Amino acid sequence: MKRNNHLFAILLLIAAILACNLPGNQGPDAPPSATESLINDETTSPPTETSIPVTSTTAPTITPEPSPTSNVVTITASGGNINIRRGPGVGYNPIAIFENGQSAVATARNADGSWLNISLPDGSGKPGWVNTRTQYSSITGDVTLLPVNSVTAPEPAYIRNCTFHDMLVKPGETKIKNQTSSPENKLQFNPGNYEVFDTSVSGNKSIKTVNLREGDTIDITKDGLGNPYSCP
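The chain above was modelled as a monomer; its predicted structure follows.
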């Protein structure tokens, strides 16, 4: 009888041990297995083409282009007056005076930068040209960055000596031969104001004041003695 009791007790112990190892008997606080953790972190739906992650790349850095540097070119009459002319050259008519101490902002230049286009100092807004290479021209700014303006060529202007006396034209101390030396008695001059002197008369007598403009031909028809002439 005792033997049977011992056997029954052993069987009960074995049944209890087996019951502890059956699935579903873990307590509510038992940690999930490694396999369960992996499944819970993944999506259960199959991946599609659009859900495939794309490897990110660093976007290229775009450096903005620098804004053009502001360039203001100013010309000042310094130490004396300067002619303002119709075009970029001494062959054009003078149209105003750029007086000592006056300044103006240039809007354009000629091809080599020797003349600048400005507005007239009288406030009219009309354009004129000033020589940058006189001893009275003072420049600030970079002339080469200004746009180039082209102007039609000036009309030539002449003084012709119709007398039998040689003449001297000032300023410039230019001699004009008499009419017997034609065509050397006709010389081209830049537009401007001139005074004509008879070199055949003692003291180089002044006989004529000339305001020469583009396209003009002005004849000297009287000598220092008052004798009249006409050009052949």
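The chain has a mean pLDDT of 81.
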